[in-house]
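Deliverable D5.2: sample structural annotation.
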Amino acid sequence: MPGSAGRDASAYGVGVAFARCDDGYTPDVHEAAETRETREAGEAGVASGATEAMEATEAKLTLTVDGSARTVTVDTRTSLLDALRERLGVTSPKKGCDHGQCGACTVLLDGRRTLSCLSLAVAQQGRDVVTASGLDDSGDLHPMQEAFVEHDALQCGYCTPGQICSAVGVLEEAAAGHPSLVTDPDVPAGSAVPLTDDEIRERMSGNLCRCGAYVDIVAAIRDVAAQRPPVPSR
C-alpha cells in the first residue's frame, strides 16, 4: 500500500510500529484487541491504586477549636494552620512565613503557645486549640486584647492574633516558673518568674512585627502582667 510504510500502529490500539508493507507484515486484529485490553486493564489498576493511595493519606480528626468540637477530614500532610484556615474557616491565625519564623500563626494548644504552621493537624487529635478569637468565651475582649488596643500595640494588625496568643502563653509560662535565657538565676526553681521588660522581649522574640510596634507590645504585656494576682511560691 503506497504511503503506508512506517505507519504507527496507535490507530489500531497497538503500541508497536508496523514494518514496511513490502516486508509482508499484516497486523493481527486479535493481537491488537488483546493489547488494547491489557493496556486498559493496566490503566484501570493504576487509577485504582492511586485512589487507594489518596484515601490512605487522609484522616478524620476531631479538635476543640475556640470551645467548639470540630471534625474534619484532612490530608495527613496538612498543617494545623491550613486545617484551621482552609478546612474549618478559622482565619484568626495568619500564614506569614509558613516556616515557623514569624509567629503570625501562633495558637494555644492545650494552653501552651504553638506554631500551627509547623504542627501536623493529624497529630492534634482530641486536643484543645484556642486562637485569638476564642480567648474570651464571654464575647468580651480578653484583657490582653484590651491592653493591645489601649497601648496601640499594632498597626496593620496582620501579626496581632499571633502576638496576643503568644503574650497570653508568656504569662502562663512565667507564672509556672519556666525560665528564659535572661531569667535571673537567683529566682528559685519552680517559682514564678517576674516579667521584666527584658523577660518580655526575650520571650516574645519569636513573634515578628513588620510595623515595628514592639515598644507598645511590651507595654501592653507589662500592664496585663501587673494586673495578675501574684502566684504563690512552690
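Annotation notes: The radius of gyration is 30 Å. The chain has two domains: 58-134, 140-234.
The annotation will be released with the project's public dataset once the embargo ends.
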